[in-house]
Amino acid sequence: MRELAKLMHVALDAMDPDPLKRSWINLFKRVDANDSGQIDFDEWRKLVRLELGMSEAVASIRALKEVWLSLDADASGFISAGEWGAF
User: Which pTM was predicted?
Assistant: First the structure.
């Protein structure tokens, strides 16, 4: 999980050279399609694959699920903005 987190930080840094424009909360808001303050697993998968550009070779679906389970602290099936912030 730590390795995936490191790779995600590298990918986020590569998204925009301006550190004021790139942030984890902005990324969360971008993938929270219905503006609910929560993302589901499909939105999480899209965040990793499409927004961060991480292929299956870099982050397997199993790795994504493992990270998802650790992020979803209350086992609600959603990651809240608070759970995301803790990550």
Answer: 0.73
For helices 61-71 and 2-15, the axis angle rounded to 10 degrees is: 100
**Residues of the chain where predicted confidence (pLDDT) is lower than 70:** 1, 15, 21-22
* Token output for 12: 């986020």
Place of tokens 């998968």: 45
The 3-class secondary structure across 29-67, one letter per residue, is HHHCCCCCCEECHHHHHHHHHHHCCCCCCCCCHHHHHHH
The Cα–Cα gap between 73 and 70 comes to 6
Give residue 2's identity as a one-letter amino acid code. R
